[in-house]
Amino acid sequence: DGVKSALFFCGNIRRNELPNYLAKKGVQLKEEVVYHTLLDPKKIPSQKGDALFFMSPSAVESFAMMNEFDTELDYYSIGETTASTLRKKGVQKINTAKEASFEAMLEQYATQNK
Fold first, then answer.
1. SS3 80
2. Helices assigned H by DSSP within 1-114
3. Within-domain flag for 44
């Protein structure tokens, strides 16, 4: 009865929620790393606009390598892990999507900028 083993396709940077949950349920998990996150930092010449959107903690880290976080801007994160990474960089005006989707981020932006 139920799942006894599973194969988990993931990247080299991943969260532990799924492996931890399955371990507690007694599911033997085999992880297969199928991609590697590679940061590609770029200097953004001008941060015109009123908001920046981040889809992952890696995006925050890459941005921070060559750019400063403008305190005048609003920042949008796809989820709490990305928001936490922004906070660690000193960002305070963070809007976190209610669910982990780009659409939810846009809805939040639209709601706050009526």
1. helix
2. 17-24, 57-66, 80-88, 102-112
3. no
Question: Hey, is 32 helix, strand or coil?
Answer: strand
Instruction: Determine the pLDDT at residue 43.
Output: 92
Domain presence at residue 86: yes
Residue span of the structural domain in which 107 resides: 51-112
Q: Is residue 11 domain-shared with residue 63, that is, in the same domain? A: no
Residue 8 φ then ψ, to 5°: -115, 110
Q: Using alpha carbons only, what angle is made at residue 19 by residues 9 and 79, rounded to the nearest 5 degrees?
A: 80
pLDDT, tens only, 34-78: 999 999 999 988 767 889 999 999 999 999 999 999 988 899 999
Nearest residue to 98 via CA among 71, 112, 114, 77: 77
Pick from 72, 74, 83, 76: nearest CA to 103: 76
Number of domains present in the structure of the chain: 2
Is 93 within the bounds of a domain? yes
